[in-house]
Fold:
Amino acid sequence: MFEKLKNILVEELSINPDDITMTSELANDLGINSLELADLVLLCEDTFGVEFSEDDIHKFITVGDVVEFLNANAQQ
Structure:
């Protein structure tokens, strides 16, 4: 799941792959703003067949937070 998410971050949001780890903070480390986070959510919904609530999105601080959510909720 981490590798799939990493590919999305690299390909769709042009983030340097070397910067992406499970502990990377979306905003502070990767520079993802609220618009890019919304794009990421839509891409994840399409890619993984999962729906995010507004509450879920506010809990995402690190890449690991998103991976954990996807592992628990994505249709494999």
